[in-house]
Amino acid sequence: MLRGPRRSHEVALSDCAAVGKVSRRHSTELERIWLVHLSLPPSDSLGSAMIVAEPVSLHPGEVSLPDSPPTSYHEKDMEKDVLAREESASEDEAVYIVDPEAERKLIRRLDIRIIPASMFIYVLCFLDRSNVGNAKILNADTGDSLAQSLHISNNQYNTALMVFFIAYAIFQVPSNYMLKKLYPSRWMAFLMMGWGGTTMILAAVKDLPSLTGVRFLLGAFEAGLFAGIVYFLTFWYKPRERSLRIALISACATLGGGFGGSIAFGVGRLNQAMGLEGWRWLVLIEGAPTCASAVLVYLFFPDYPETVSWLSPAERELAINRIKGVASLGHSRISWEQTQATLRDWRLWLHYLIFVAVSVPFSSISLFAPTIVAGLGFEGLDAQLFTVPPYGIGFVVTVVVAWICDRYEKWSWGAVVSFLIASVSFFIQGAIAATAFKTRYGMLCIGSSFSYASIPPLLTWLTANLRSTSAITLAVALNVTLGTIGQIIGVYIYKGDEAPGYPTGHYTNAGALLVCTAVTLLLKVVYTRRNRHLTAGERPWRT
Q: Do 148 and 27 lie in a common domain?
């Protein structure tokens, strides 16, 4: 609500029905009546009015009239009660009726300010995370790849990859808490400077221990970014608005992979320039822009609707009030009681199980795409270049699937269809002859694309079924944290001695996606049954 002078009018419950759906709670001790506040924005506003219906409790027998003070419920007490309720209003305690066109204009402004910046940050994150896959085989034909320079075996290389995910799991939840504590812009800038600098330090490693240590640091800094961005979006967007936006950001993993292959193709020509192998130039060139961008994020990245200066008072009012009850509030406190309830909520563990399983193909393809492509008959720098099409197709598929899911609010079905298509493609890759290069390459494009496409609907479905700031803060971070179990599994499934067919890797990915399908369908049944037992005024679960 706009702060400042306003008028309050008491109306009957029947009158409230004329301005929107109003829920009513019953109590044996208190009798509820409804005050309707009509807030008229100033002349420079969006041209919309918000009508807010809020409950005020009176003891039985007490009556309040507009022009006469109540007998025992003082006007000052009433004002305190109303203001207190405004601070903690939930969806069934406040109804905001806004001009749809005004809301569309606001969302467009938010999209321009928030989404491109978030996409760019995640491109840098994934570029710096996955470049080790490009570095492993870059200039292998001249004996100058990362694996050859450091004299490490496939198993040792996998160990260096695995410690990244250990750090990722350890620092995920604390990082999400720090984002809330220190403001998104400050914390994200700190993380970016940390992982950008760590990526550049990778150019100085000489052996397996130093490589492992640097990868652990990289995991610690990158741990909070993706879960933090998903959590950050809940400050600004309703559930039905998130899937496409999460998809645009998540799909930047595919852009990061595509750019990584393209950059590696070019940087490979710098091999032995100034005495440095091509992979060392690669990590230097890819880490530097992240450090520079961290300064811009610190200065310009938005935090909460309540704090940004580029919204007008009326726009800020609308941005805050439209998400009350359906999204996380930026300044809401994290409650220990709600945290405990979130940890004990068993249906959330089904969400986590799905994310563990889908993280297996996500991780394995991200880290081993150049290796898999090299097994399809592409050699040298061509192996880097031919990793680009799977990522490019993946970006398009991810965005299209998310748009359809948001359009019809069918996030679970979007995930299920993506799981099934990707699973079939991985089964085909494992079953056909290792020399069927064209078919295997086509199936790789399909499998990787739909594996990536399933993730944004899953995250949107999870956040849409969370009902407190504490739940969102913890559940999103815990979801991504537990997903590292699947990512660690993904590190080990593409075995070097199974080249070029890699049947174990492909069959494992297919099986993991079938597990995702089964658990998602089970969770849909759980939510459907819960909806059958809702009482009047309760918010339905998203199935």
A: no
Count structural domains, the chain: 3
CA distance 92 to 325: 7
DSSP letter assigned to residue 65? B
DSSP per-residue codes, 256-301: HHHHHHHHHHHHGGGTTBTTB-HHHHHHHHHHHHHHHHHHHHHHH-
In a domain, 183, yes or no: yes
> Which position has the token pair 């160990």?
159
136, two tokens:
């492993």
Do residue 85 and residue 118 come from a single domain? no
**Checking DSSP bridges between strand 31-39 and strand 50-58, what pairing results, if any?**
antiparallel
CB 192 within 8 A of CB 297: yes
Task: Give burial (CB, 10 Å; 0-12/13-18/19+) of 204.
Answer: exposed
Q: At what angle do helices 239-250 and 225-233 cross, to 10 degrees?
A: 150
pLDDT of residue 333: 60
Residues 169 and 297 occupy one common structural domain: yes
Helices within 183-251 (DSSP H only): 184-201, 208-222, 225-233, 239-250
Amino acid at 208: L
Amino acid 294 reads A
Contact yes or no for 368/133 (Cβ under 8 A): yes
409 found inside a domain:
yes
Contact, 401 vs 394, CB < 8 A?
A: no
Q: Say what angle helices 100-137 and 313-321 make with each other, to 10 degrees.
A: 70
Query: What are the tokens at 179?
Result: 């984002």
> Closest Cα to residue 506, out of 518, 498, 497?
498
Higher pLDDT, 19 or 442: 442
Mean pLDDT lowest for which of 31-35, 235-239, 386-390, 446-450?
31-35
Gyration radius of the chain over CA positions: 26
The answer to the question of residue 246 being in a domain is no
Confidence at residue 325, expressed as pLDDT on a 0 to 100 scale: 60
Range of the domain at 13: 8-97
Q: Tell whether 307 and 164 lie within a shared domain.
A: yes
Q: What single DSSP character describes residue 36? A: E
**pLDDT tens, 470-484?**
677 788 888 988 998
Q: Taking Cα atoms as reference points, which of 324, 239, 338, 247 lies closest to residue 541?
A: 239
What pLDDT, on a 0 to 100 scale, did the predictor assign at position 202? 96
Give the CA count within 13 Å in the CB-facing half-sphere of 210.
12
Report CA torsion sign: 221, 226, 231, 234. Answer: positive
pLDDT at residue 85 above 50?
no
Backbone angles phi, psi at 52, to 5 degrees: -120, 125
